[in-house]
Amino acid sequence: MGLGVDWAVEWLKLSADSMARHRAELIELDRAIGDSDHGENMDRGFQAVVAKLEEAPPETPGAALKVAAMSLMSKVGGAAGPLYGTAYLRAATSLGDLADVDAEALAAALAAARDGVVARGKAEPGDKTMIDAWTPAVEAAQKAAAAGKDPREVLDAAAEAAQAGAESTDELVARKGRASYLGERSVGHRDPGAASTALLLRAAATAAGNGTGTGDA
User: Fold this and answer.
1) Torsion angle, CA of 44/46/51/56, rounded to 10 degrees?
2) Model's pTM, two decimal places?
């Protein structure tokens, strides 16, 4: 059984809850190697997403993700708005008008989201960016889908891998963005974009009813 629009809307609502709860943590992560606004921007952006969803309830998962994309692009400052906006827009385009998202379609949508972030930000794994969470998440999702897992298991695998990927950024030297100016001094700090990516993917798994709690949605 696939995932429908109720899952997508719940994912975005849980994402808003998560960004609100982790706002201070993301601000602190960004204060260490960025400009301190990631938590504030993500919280504000997802509150706007929820407001838009309530104004005009979407009919498909793709439509819900498109609402998220447009809201984040217009409301979130810094690099996060364009990057996450592109991710959700590419995922929405990948899903198209599907009313029921199976494991293969889900893995493809996550890959499209990751590829959108790469196209926009030009980052690669190891650069200490959100790609260090996105790439292992996509790989885990693709592996789970190929193994015949259901969409909930695919999301859980993606969320677990994203959390591990976010944690891996602690010891990386930043090579992209504002953090790259710090060079070796960026070591020992988690990338805030990778951290928020892990939280968002955990919210997706939790919304599907298969979250294990790792990463704290």
Assistant:
1) 150
2) 0.93
Rounded to a whole number of angstroms, the distance between the first and last alpha carbons of the chain is 23
Beta carbons within 10 angstroms of residue 55's beta carbon: 8
| Ramachandran category for residue 122: left, alpha or beta (phi over 0 → left; psi -120 to 50 → alpha) | left
58: left (phi over 0), alpha (psi -120 to 50) or beta: beta
Q: Give the pLDDT confidence score for residue 175 in this predicted structure.
A: 80
Mapped onto helix, strand or coil, the DSSP state of residue 60 is: coil
3-state secondary structure at position 9:
helix
Is-contact 134 162, C-beta < 8 A?
A: yes
- Residue 91's nearest CA partner among 3, 160, 196, 26 is 3
Residues of the chain with pLDDT under 70: 1, 178, 181, 210-217
Tokens 């709690």, residue?
213
Instruction: Classify residue 123 by burial, with Cβ atoms within 10 Å: 0-12, 13-18, 19+.
Output: buried
Give the separation between CA 47 and CA 107, rounded to whole angstroms. Answer: 26
